[in-house]
# Entry
Amino acid sequence: MSTAAQTDTAHAAGTNYLNATKGLKSWIFTLDHKRIGIMYLISILLFFLVGGLLALGVRAHLFSPEGATGMSNDTYNQAFTLHGAIMTFLFIVPSIPASIGNFFLPLMLGAKDVAFPKLNLASYHLYFLGALFFIATIVFTGLDTGWTFYAPFSTDRAMNGVILATSGAFILGFSSILTGVNFIVTIHKLRAPGLTWRRLPLFVWSLYATSIIYVLATPVVGITLLLLIIERAFGVGIFDPALGGDPVLFQHFFWFYSHPVVYVMILPAFGVISELVTIHSRKHIFGYNAIAVSSIAIAFIGFLVWGHHMFVSGQSGLSAAVFSFLTFLVAVPTAIKVFSWVATMYKGSIVYNTPMLYTFSFLFLFSIGGLTGLFLGALATDVHLHDTYFVVAHFHYVMMGSVFIGFLGAIHHWWPKMTGRMYNETLGRIACGLVFVGFNVTFFTQFVLGTQGMPRRYATYHEVGDIEPQLLEMFTLLHQISTIGSFIMAAGLFLILFYLLASVFKGDKAPDNPWGGLSLEWATASPPIEHNFEGQPVVRRGPYEFPEIDPMIK
Amino acid sequence: MINTLLANANGATFWLPVQASTFAEVHDPLFYFIYWVCVVSFVVVVGVMAYFGVKYKRKQEGERTSGNRGNFALEVGWIAVPSVFLLIIFWWGFQGFVMYQTPPANTLNVRVTADTWSWSFRYPDGTVSSELIVPVDQPVRLTMTSESGSAQGAVIHSLFIPAFRLKRDVLPDRYTVLWFEATREGTYTLFCTEYCGTGHSEMNVPVHVVPSDEFAERLAALDSAPDGMTTAEWGQQLFAQQGCTACHSVDGSRLIGPTMQGLYGSTREFTDGSTRVADENYLRESILEPSALINVGYQNVMPSYAGRLTDGRLDAIIAYIESLAD
Amino acid sequence: MSTAHAHGGHHHPFHAHHFETLPQQEASARMGMWLFLGQELLFFSAVFVAFFVFQYMYPEGFLEAHRTLSIPLGTLNTLVLLTSSLTMALAVRNAQLGDNKGVVKQLGFTIALATVFMIVKYFEYSGKIEKGQLPGQWYTYEGLPEGASIFFTMYFVMTGLHGLHIVIGIGVLAWILIRATKNQFSAEYYAPVENVGLYWHLVDLIWIFLFPFLYLIE
Amino acid sequence: MSADSNHNQGHGEHHVMPLSTYFAVFGALLVLTGITVLVSFLKLGLLVAVVIASIKAALVVGYFMHLKYDDRFYSVILLSSLFAIFCFFLFVFLDFTSRGMVVPEEETNFLRNERAMIERLEQEEAAAAAAAEEEEEEEAEEDTGG
# Structure
């Protein structure tokens, strides 16, 4: 009964959570957090595929000013809307917490399951139901509001998919809330003996911060979307100025959720990077307390900055100034984390495997994503850059370049534990390189597009109203580079899909602890047994006190 | 490649387009200040990361690593130093924002109306234009609102002129104000940057910054065909500029509204059961009051252009539609 | 499953296998409920924000419109709901003492009072619908300043959401009432009663704020 | 399991409050309801109503919901929610009430009354036109004078 790897003796009967019971029903109605995590992972990646294909369509269309694919403006508008809505609501909000988090939170805590297994299953079912609404939107009607559903466009003019899609997002919100409640209670109540708060892996801290936001921010978007549905269905006039309502109020409501939710996306990725950078450089994390506390700080300050999405919407100058100031405040804890990760590598023993390559990519891309936020947080420059491709590039650097890269890093890091198989390391490195290069080619060009004035959500950019010829030339060239980059990235992602699937069937058997990790998930078999641990594990030291660490070297 | 871009760019740089307003002169230094802060920070962070990555690459399994767990002074330092820069950037940005929001006295007042999907600009003398014409070195105040001439409600638009570094949302049933002082003659582009539906990407028009002494002339000239252009040719240009092409094709294909090819002289059927031959009067009425008679098979979505087209322009557009008759 | 992991202690039929002890499980359930209540508060906060924003925009319309609400009916409903809160609290107390009969009795009172609340609400709503004091485009009542229609929008949205919670509440109250008739609760296992109680008190809390804001403030 | 999960979390199962407490709280709630209704006729406004409602809420939360005797973390949850709600109110109202404070021009922004806006603009335009005419007249005078 200790964290020491006693469990690598093959489990007596050779059973694990994957083969303990059989049949589709044993998966759909399972209460095992690991299976629920796997189901989330598959669904999430499936929707990433759908959203990604839509993105490729969008990029292909923008290859020429008139639209290279010949789709109509309406089709294009639906494509980018569904890309955004699917990626936000179905992919990135649940991404790391619901899949990796669900799988590893109880393992890291040394618990048998999350606190409320039935609730956990219910939140997966709600997720699936919400996803069905989005699919119904695609199949039966259309949705052309952009993922932000801004009123009064969404209440008045947009296609009929609005009610379906917002109902879907409403249901997904409840899925998030239930996950958040479940995680917080699990972390409070189900920690193994000896696992004190200051011995929690930082990934757990980040899930804790994420859950706070899930619980406190999601209900507001729930009610906002509910009001939008009521407004659209019955014309009650809450957001529609024609009936005396206020569209800016919608924006306040929407961003009260949708800004904190950005931290829901990024915080788990921060947690993942904290794990990866320590294990793969065999170092104790630099500034454990600072990183843990800054996660919680970000969760709370995140509630104070939503107005920076509305600098040009006509909110008052005073509140714009306050929001701008608070926005810079949130940059501080974020910077602390980045510096701490870099400092962690100091005098380490850094191995260049696939998870570590993703860590390097993350630090590179997140630095760009975070720093370009300064342009958008400053009032005067935001006036120029708001709603241009600069914003598109910025949030893709943060959400895709950071969250998704963190997600990929997490998948590669924990893949042996989840599946009991090793993937092909060479292909892993090649794919990481392709994604990294493709990503930068795609999105760095978009910074320039944005500063030059290319507005976002444009189906075409040919000269209807006489765009200045030099601008048009520049836009065309940059869009073409960006489109090429997106296809390079897609190639890398398909390669990952290929070798991960291949590893499930043909991969080498994974050892219980391939990276020499100390947190509890490495103290059980790969893949874990049905109830996680043989007996109750007991924790005697922190998760980053690696045997290689020599306290004499400063 | 970048050099070609720069050479073509007419005063523009790699990062920013032409600088053509007083606000751009305030904006650009701040932009470059943040830019260099970012470049330096990025180089430091990623440089140190790369250095550690190379220097401390694992040479053998189980090699000893540092027991360092943190350094209070260092942590305080990297909170304090960025904070100073963040404060500077905040304050600088705020200063610029106040300027952006505070028009001086003696502005030229232009009223802007955005509809789906066209702009109209009304000058103090009552002239209405679909393109923005402003004198150089003269503060101009835009008082903007969004309207809907059609049965569907008005939506939010946003007026954006990259050369002036200016942007502000345009809301229905509200008035927002934007001001600028153009400093450089030329023709720039005005974009709509708040997503507004089908024609969003075609809702852009030129901004002409003209010498002050030519301004009155240019306004007057709005009402007749430019030199070297027939009325129908001018009509064609206006047809595109007014955003008509978003809904009406000229090649027979079906868009949101009926095609203009062969329209003139044809007999139209309406949803109220009546029919009428499309003559000049019909065209005029259906532009000014589109919801009066709806063609069978189409929706009542066209905005009214009453008050947004001068008579001369209306005639030109009608002349163009006539020229598309079979 | 749970029998395979017996730890030597007592084994309650509702004790889930992944909790070490029943009290730990009870405390977890309660913490989960409190978190759920936290999100409920945020859920309602948005309509309150909207209400005050519109009140700020249309002070006169809101003042005149709110005078058309019936203070006696509102007060009656407040009293009904406060009393139901008391009976709910007593039901939880009975559960703590392991008195399932007492639980059934107090829950019966609570459900009855909740039904009274909804009946009063029905009369209020039908009066409004008759007069055309309705939200947005349905508003046909005359003689009130601009913004009155938004007041009625907010009135129906806020009381409607609250009413929806009451109806859901009646459902879960009935569910634990049935469980209590089967003697499923005891001094060591009564978390369902307690959590439903917490939910019910929250519904009461929301009304404590709705009532003065909608009916009373001049 | 975890050190702090079993024993030292003031679990309410052994804390059964006497019936008198419930009735006392209920009585207080009734009295406060009466006061808030009466006070509304005095038109004392929002603040008094909010204070009374908050006291009532505190009584319900503290006694009926046992928060007073329960795990302190539940209070933390409640306070976190209230913090988020407070931020929500604060910043939305900051926007709606401060238009025109930093930038006087903002008074026109979001002006809801179209007629007032048009009148204001027309006045300005008329004034500008008058000024222009005066200038022209002056110029004309100068011309004749010359």
Remarks:
- Residues 114-145 of chain D form the longest helix (32 residues).
- The CA atoms of residues 102 and 112 of chain D lie 20 Å apart.
